[in-house]
Write a structure and sequence with these properties.
The protein is α/β, with parallel strands linked by helices. It has helices at about 10-25, 40-50, 55-60, 75-80, 100-105, 140-150, 165-170, 175-190, 195-215, 220-225, 235-245, 245-265, and strands at about 5-10, 30-35, 50, 65, 90-95, 115, 125-135, 155.
Length: about 270
């Protein structure tokens, strides 16, 4: 935690990461930030006590650079940084769909790069961050990435070839649950409940179910069977879900997300 860390392009996820690191023991004086708008940089200074710098200053003085700009802006950022990034700097990429080779080709030979796909629950310290080392990253580099992103949730190491699948499952995953809650809330209204009560019922049920999945060690089929009594309400609902192809639709949706992640990695924008 004594090293200097710079977050470049500090948006919502970047700020959540900073906040989590400070709660985890990092000194604000060791955290640098860059932002496109000067007023945003000053806002971060006032809120967290971190130091706003330019991208060039960050490259020269930080031990670790966390790049959180949008994927379409990453090439221009690397062009700006490349002359000032020493070969011993750790580069952590938070950009969806961009492989570590993209960074390695634009920076000095041997620069360590670690790719991380996190998700929006980082805002509430419940992120799932998936970590993959590039060809020059060591165990120490990966451990540093785990320490940083562990401040806002859980981490998981995977080979980089699995990153697109992880993007489909956990990177985009929160949106699927929000979509499901939206649909269930509409169903609750249809069944005669006020929206606020339907929402409260569904959200708490989701929290309880997720906690059971995490803590019980039981397979989801077993947990579902525990709720599904013979000829009861739940099995009738499950039958309708199967009749409407919900399982197949979810599989197809995740495959589509994985394929789009691959397209983005190849540079396809449309």
């Amino acid at each position: 935690m004594s090293q200097k860390v710079a977050v470049l392009g500090t948006g919502k996820i970047g700020e959540a990461l900073l906040s989590g690191m400070i709660r985890g023991g990092w000194a604000p004086a060791d955290l640098l930030v860059t932002a496109r708008r000067p007023e945003r940089a000053e806002e971060l200074r006032a809120r967290h006590g971190v130091t706003p710098v330019s991208n060039t200053e960050a490259a020269k003085s930080a031990d670790t650079l966390i790049l959180t700009v949008k994927p379409q802006d990453m090439g221009a950022l690397l062009d700006e940084l490349a002359p000032d990034v020493p070969v011993d700097r750790l580069i952590i990429s938070g950009a969806a769909g961009i492989p570590t080779s993209f960074f390695e080709e634009r920076l000095a030979e041997g620069t360590p790069v670690v790719r991380v796909m996190t998700n929006t629950p980082a805002l509430v310290d419940e992120a799932m961050s998936v970590i993959s080392p590039g060809s020059h990253a060591t165990e120490e580099h990966v451990a540093t990435a785990e320490e940083i992103f562990g401040a806002v949730g859980q981490t998981l190491r995977v080979p980089e070839g699995q990153q697109d699948a992880c993007t489909a499952l956990s990177g985009s995953g929160p949106a699927y649950f929000f979509y499901l809650v939206e649909a269930m809330t509409d169903a609750g209204i249809l069944l005669g409940l006020p929206r606020d009560k339907a929402h409260e019922l569904i959200v708490q049920s989701a929290i309880g179910a997720a906690t059971m999945l995490r803590d019980s060690g039981e397979h989801p089929v077993k947990l579902r069977e525990n709720v599904t009594s013979p000829a009861g309400t739940t099995i009738n609902a499950i039958r309708e879900l199967e009749n409407h192809g919900v399982r197949a639709a979810l599989i197809a949706a995740l495959e589509a997300a994985r394929d789009r992640s691959r397209e983005l990695a190849s540079g396809k924008k449309d």
